[in-house]
Design goal:
288 residues, 2 domains, Spore Coat Polysaccharide Biosynthesis Protein SpsA, Chain A, globular, 9-stranded mixed β-sheet, alpha/beta
């Protein structure tokens, strides 16, 4: 990656006008001359398009039209990109000042890595600091235990083109953990190199997908773990989720969510009631 590598950033967005402009400015504000920036808006009706138009001369491409969700938007955006280094920055996340400088230092240090991963500051909807997340468990076996032994925030993971071309695009079945699914594919052969710097800032708010749809996120993680061969881990996590759902209504919601996720992954709906369905589906996972 000689000279000044091209960095390509995609921002998927839908009705995030409250955050979008700060995201755009955080990318353009890096002042990097070899930047390729694409915004994929899903047909917003909240003023987002007016914000995007203000900066369109700085963009490689932008569109505002109905899509098939975040995964689809990221895939289509990255398909347009020609960068040596790729990432997507969601419309409620931001790059920290100097992020590209720190990234390029890490790239120079580990040019053969498949990804370079830094820290992420977490803030609330008003921009108040909550905490800093540092990457941990940057090997495949630990990443499979996502949120436990392995974890980092997606915006702070910059991907080498060679890794994307080998293991992309993202699996559109996943609505929530398509990023982790991709990382597990990559980690079979590529190094994830830790960057000793905070590269991004993520907004934690009630409408954020990972906050508003936690049961779905957990169910997708179980399926992802099973698909990648970590069956014992999937079994352990399923048992733990059910054990924690001591409230009967919450238990029912957990089981319904898991049932839908497993069925969407290709399992046929078995006969019997909800409990029987979950029991059969869990057994299928455990015995594979």
């Amino acid at each position: 990656m000689p000279g000044m590598p091209r960095i390509s950033i995609v921002t998927p967005s839908y009705n995030q006008a409250a955050f979008l402009e700060k995201t755009i400015l955080s990318v353009l504000g890096q002042g990097y001359p070899n930047l390729e920036y694409v915004i994929m808006d899903g047909g917003s009706t909240d003023g987002s398009v007016d914000i995007i138009r203000k900066y369109e001369r700085h963009l490689k491409h932008w569109v505002s039209e109905k899509d098939k969700g975040q995964t689809d938007a990221v895939n289509r955006g990255l398909a347009m990109c020609t960068g040596d280094i790729l990432d997507w920055i969601n419309s409620d996340d931001r790059l920290k000042p100097g992020a590209f400088d720190a990234l390029l230092g890490a790239v120079a240090e580990r040019p053969d890595a498949g990804a370079w991963v830094g820290g992420c500051d977490l803030v609330d909807a008003d921009g108040r600091y909550i905490s800093t997340n540092r990457p941990r468990g940057l090997v495949r076996e630990k990443m499979a235990d996502w949120g436990g032994a392995g974890h980092f925030f997606q915006p702070s993971c910059f991907i080498a083109r060679k890794a994307w071309e080998k293991h992309g695009p993202l699996d559109v079945w996943h609505n929530m953990c398509f990023d982790v699914d991709f990382y597990l594919k990559m980690a079979r052969e590529f190094e994830f190199h830790g960057v000793d710097a905070v590269l991004t800032e993520a907004t934690i708010h009630k409408d954020a997908k990972t906050q508003a749809q936690k049961p779905i996120l957990r169910a997708e993680i179980y399926v992802m773990q099973a698909r990648h061969g970590f069956l014992d881990l999937a079994r352990k996590n399923i048992a733990g989720a059910v054990a924690l759902a001591i409230d009967s209504k919450r238990l029912e919601e957990e089981l319904k969510t898991a049932r839908k996720a497993f069925m969407d992954a290709g399992a046929q709906p078995p006969p019997g009631g909800l409990s029987a369905a979950i029991s059969r589906l869990r057994s299928r996972l455990i015995k594979r």
